[in-house]
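For consistency, the fold was encoded as tokens, as this record shows:
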Amino acid sequence: MATFFTGVLGALVVMPWLAGAAMAQDAPPAVDDSALVARGAYLARAADCMPCHTADSKQPYAGGLGLNTPFGTLYSVNITSDKTTGIGGWNFDDFKRALHDGIRKDGAYLYPAMPFDAYTGITEDDLKALWAYVRRIPAVDAPNLENGLIFPFNVRLGMLAWRELFFRPAYFTPVAGKSDEWNRGAYLVEALGHCSDCHSPRNVMGAIKGKAAFTGAEIDGFYAPDIASAALARTWDKDTLVQFLKTGSAPQKTLVFGPMSDVVHDSLAYLTDADLAAMATYLLDSPPPPDAPAPQKASSLPADVYARASKVFVDNCAACHQTQGTGLLGAIPPLAGNPAVTAAEPYNVLTVVLQGLPADARFGAMPSFAGRLSDQQIAELTNYVRTSWGNGAAPNATAKMVAAWRETTKVPDYGTQAASAFDCAQVGGAPGASGPDPRAVAAISSALQGGDLDVAAMVDSYQASAPDASPARVVDALMAAYCPVVAAGGGDDYAKLAKLRRFSLQAAADASAPVASTPFPPVSVVWAVQAGKSLVARGPKSLGGPLVCPTDNGKLVPKALAADAAGLIGKPNVPVSGSTGADWAHALVKKDPKARLADVANALISAYCGVVAGTAGLEEAQQHGYVESFGQQVIQTLQLEN
């Protein structure tokens, strides 16, 4: 139950987190917190902090304890209040981040030897008590020793993969239906006592083997026995187990030795009888170990898909977007809790992965992964980020959907030689040649020349003429039909390319929706969906029946933006004429320049829908028509913003 284990990457460097800096303030607070300090001292005993951070008994908590691991030697660090060699410059937030998140003050990841994977369960109140105690540990000038890990284990960035695969920060949550004593015991065993760190075998990456938790492991040449409830309950009763935890011996049972003797001497012997009884209650009735690490357990993806997708994320995304999808403030956008990631449709993620993003005033550039990842890999990666770290989006991306969106990457970037040539694909060729149906493409091209830009109708038209065509083939066909129309038109090349790109994105959206693994939730009016730096439109299945406006609950559109849109529109006469929708779109972007373009469009559509719905004397068909034309104008206007 101590942190003395050697099978983990970084073994018990037990708090390389506290390796350099700070904790205590120059003067103690004026408030009498002696009771809090006393509770913190008790909790530090329960957490068994001192033995791991003490090489010389005359200098407790000064670190320097060498721990031999399969990856080299690690040394525990000085966690006294010394400001130069200890942690005398830390504050509570630094301390909490180390224990709860496994990240030390300088932002470096801790090795899993420091049991932050257990300490993450410590409650906020107990963290404050621990901090009150730890920050008063007398200062000891004891420089930290350099770890002796071999390459590549000496590179802390390697912890990205470990954290993504095996760690999720989470406070302890009592189990409903269990007694207070059982839950107290669970908290002491699983969080503070981190018993599983010694009594569980570990995999090659130093993470606890989920299914084998508590079933025993080797530690420093000793064997920490199986303490899973199935084994303990066969030969131990509660009173005998309590006696063993308190004294290290039990009649006709065993006598403690090895690392466990330090645990009893320095930790368990100081716990109250009630806490020892709680621990025994839990250990004799602990639940079966989880069959998967916490991140995978929380995922809605099948185990094999999760394994592949998490590896793709670690290999390609985690270095920038960080484990837990937090991103980097001011440099890399977060994936966790990002509305662009968790939208009903996965289009934004697909577009960004395939096309990349240019740098802007807020974030750095992101490269395209179209040439690195297959359609299946991108689909699984998309579903992974949409369902990880608390994201609750549907895992609805498919390889066929990705293939359709991959077609949009064929539109060249303005300024390149390919863009200047504006060389449109030729359709046709030898009999039996693969490719879009030339007659269907010609028919669509003719309609486009006549000014018909109803992309959804064109998708339906092509699919009717070529029912076996994949979504990617449909997009290819529509681009082949529209490209010569754009090329023959007037205007600058950049404007032509922008038209072709917007058209390709809309074609991909309309063609790929039917192959989503689960149907998208229906929309009642035309609706904007973010697709990288641009937008696509989704329309209702029918324009018949009563007009139903989107619910104004802050979930579909940010409330502040919705209020700005309503204030901008006011109470106009409907239908609004000319470029009014476009003018409002520009004005709202100017007012809220950091808002997502899809949110801007949808805020205006929602506000205008409410005005139309409240206008007396309109027939249902008129209402739908007014909102549809307004929404399309707003979306097309905002497509030009980037």
